[in-house]
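Review box. Two proteins, two foldings.
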Amino acid sequence: MQTIFVMVKCELGKAYDVAAAAADTIENVSEVYSISGQYDLLMKCALGDDADIGHFVTQNVQLIDGVKDTYTHITFNAFT
């Protein structure tokens, strides 16, 4: 299992719509948080070991209406 965190910058006024769409339509998104700073949302995603992370982000997250930009963090170990 691969865990990634995708930070999402949304079009103005679209953060709640993007969050709902991600939570409701993307099976691999386990949690969505609103955050402060340069990005609007933080999505925790759990992918299979053989999943292509780039393909997942570009074909799922980036295609949600209202997504302006993404920044992906790839994790290695979970300590808790």
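Next protein.
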Amino acid sequence: MTTRRHPTLVAALLTLALAAAAAPPQPPLPHVVILATGGTIAGTAASSTATVGYKAATVGVAELIAAVPELASVARVTGEQVFQIASENMTPAHWLILARRVNELLARPDVAGIVITHGTDTLEETAYFLDLVVKSEKPVVLVGAMRPATAISADGPMNLFNAVALAASPEAVGRGVMVCMNDRIDAARDVTKTSTVALDTFRSPEVGELGLMERGRPVFYRATTRLHTTATEFDVSSLKELPNVGIALAYAGSGRLEIDALAAAGVKGIVNAGVGDGSLSIEAKAALVEARKRGIVVVRASRIAGGPVVRDGEADDDALDFVVADNLSPQKARILLALALTRTSDTREIQRIFRRY
């Protein structure tokens, strides 16, 4: 017995088949490479309710990717395990390795962007270093988590999805290195960790975030105006190590002990994290003047979370031959000073660099 098809149904099926055949092929998804370095996003704990006391950097990059199958909807994702460390163990030597690998990958025409998984403790420092030395306009996005992968409501998977979606977006091109966590998009220069425990710890309190992630796509509200990536003068392609720069933290009664110790250790630069507008105690000022006479470059920064350090404000920087950090945190001023010292030891030039970046 044969079944007869209704002519109208046959015509409809034929129309659908012809339409499908005539539809243009969909462009391939952008290729995003995830470079894993460890951190809490790759951490595990004995209990699903443990959000402290866990072991960081135990989950490999392949497992991180497999845990978020939704990544396949926004990008073609591959991964590399560059390091497997807690971020308190991140060093300038790690930065140089990471920067070279990022630049190698971004030079490939098949790579659209990079995501770097990272522990949150020093994430902002790695991000700012890369912002100054990456030589591509393609997106580079750092991402981490405040809860380990084994937690009931781990924030890592959504953070990773948003970071990959951001790195894959054409709208993210040319915006410098970014940090993407808790749906926020922040510029590497401006972002800082503001809470030891909160999920929305990464903020840009002085100038605000660049934008937000909304349903897997970025919505930008502003752009950073300081020079970054392809517009910088720094080249670490053949650099074996960064100049040694230390930070001296000021506090009531701190004196000169820390400054003298750094000078004796042979540092090339000292960032003094002063009180208020980078104010110097009598003893600290004397120690820094001596350090400068020994050829050590001195940068006045502030331990305060907001506001710039004004040149010739709380100290006669012109007469003392000091540099001011503008509104960079001491830890980011240290990075910029180290890179500046790969170019020059002229304090006037270094001050120009601090104004530009």
